Amino acid sequence: MNEDTKEVLLILQEECAEVEQAVCKAFRFGLDSRHEDGLTKKEELESEIGDLLCIIDILIKKAVLSDSNINGAKQKKLEKHGKH
Question: 40 forms bridges with which residues in the sheet?
Fold first, then answer.
């Protein structure tokens, strides 16, 4: 694994942790509560998910991850949980 790939994977790890933290805050304070910067917890979560999706796109573009494999896993998850 080259250094560029390691760096992007590290950023992916950080973004996942930030999404996790935003979810925890949404549970703790509610989606409509406001963050110090004026964003609601929902908006903060949306922002963090956007950052995560960006890093995933970068990993696909760099051919570190497979778009078709990711979409296949996504489809399986939708079939399992998408009926709710």
Answer: 34
| Euclidean distance between CA atoms 60 and 81, whole angstroms | 25
Q: Model pTM?
A: 0.90
pLDDT in tens, 32-77: 999 788 999 999 999 999 999 999 999 999 999 999 999 999 999 9
CB-CB neighbours of 14 under 10 Å: 13
User: Which stretch of DSSP H or E encloses residue 1?
Assistant: none
Contact present, 48 and 20 (Cβ < 8 Å): no
Integer Cα distance of 22 and 81 in angstroms: 22
Angle at which helices 3-29 and 41-61 pack, to 10 degrees?
A: 160
